[in-house]
């Protein structure tokens, strides 16, 4: 281990996962070499800190970590790296032992010797067996925690951000991984920011960076981040990025709860905040989808302990938007603990999906919650079923389904969702049947499926600023909203937290109608039709 430099280990991390299928773009979609959509469901793995080594290798063998990434449903790692790893010889030529000894991280060094005594061999074999795609993210120049407006790493011309050195580093990194097909993309720079940021220099250098990467490695996606901590790509509406190549350009945006204001989700009404920030996101980055570009949410995440109310409310909104737009994304973060962060040895990372010792998931329910978004709902080559909608519940990550059309509706895996159509008359009909969603006249009772779909109790509208309350009207004109009982049965209740009130949480009543061509195992087993004189008849018996 002592003879391997930190830069050489970065190469060996991914040498064994070569395949013959580089990715490209088809309008707003990322596709494989056969033109079929590939959804990036990534997790961020930090390697940009002062030790300049992928976090966690002192806690667990590399093969164990790789297998846990796959077991949690991720198909991709956004791997962060500091520019000086490649461009600063005094850093790049350090061995792992020297890097950890200079920081006095002797306990971590001992852990690496125990868990990964032959780093190259273990990394090659583990990632080779698990086929995890990799996006290389130039996170920072000078190794350390990121980010602030005044850290000297924010924008071209800052203390640690020499544009020419950056172009050299990008070229070297792209060359290093040329031919390593499972390195599928390069994000040119994380979160441009700070007092020097401006649109003209963004175009000048990002276009140069994109050309440099593509010239050195024709296969990788070229991923460009926006201004203001990657919150703003609105300027692309006025001026397109001009490149000599096509089929490789992806834009990246970031979205955290604290990005919306430190306590905005606590201090204001969640429906109003969700509507406001979702509109902002569409105006500053989401619009790119309609212009035919893939949008990759390179960072989002919450405190996995579940104690942060601001984050808990934000994530319900985020997951609703991510499902509706069927976004590619990378969760922050894999890391359960750091070798060294901000001067603290062994800092616990509460945003990490791994626990402190990297033994397992910190919050298994969260992993289950995002699982529906780890597979694509639609896209090129994904025509398993006719276009339909699923009714997605962000709080649980589940969709509305049922044991059969004569049983109560309930939440279940989205792979077993009923396929719905949403008509101009505001009715939600199970496709292939005459059955529509209906409410009863009493609060707290289960919703049902019926065949008389012209009454008010069969008309459902998306209301509130969040556009996530599915509401119908009773005969007396009062509105009622879909809700979820403690046993996951779908019921109706008073519509809650529609506006003004910041003390209540509307998330149990938040649903999204999501376009899908994904097949459903539930459809094959349970769809029935009503035939006059015969009652309920399985579809396959209907002539």
Automatic annotation (TrEMBL):
<dbReference type="InterPro" id="IPR001547">
    <property type="entry name" value="Glyco_hydro_5"/>
</dbReference>
<keyword id="KW-0732">Signal</keyword>
<feature type="domain" description="Glycoside hydrolase family 5">
    <location>
        <begin position="61"/>
        <end position="334"/>
    </location>
</feature>
<dbReference type="InterPro" id="IPR017853">
    <property type="entry name" value="GH"/>
</dbReference>
<keyword id="KW-0378">Hydrolase</keyword>
<dbReference type="Pfam" id="PF00150">
    <property type="entry name" value="Cellulase"/>
</dbReference>
<comment type="similarity">
    <text>Belongs to the glycosyl hydrolase 5 (cellulase A) family.</text>
</comment>
<feature type="signal peptide">
    <location>
        <begin position="1"/>
        <end position="20"/>
    </location>
</feature>
<keyword id="KW-0326">Glycosidase</keyword>
<dbReference type="InterPro" id="IPR035992">
    <property type="entry name" value="Ricin_B-like_lectins"/>
</dbReference>
<protein>
    <recommendedName>
        <fullName>Glycoside hydrolase family 5 domain-containing protein</fullName>
    </recommendedName>
</protein>
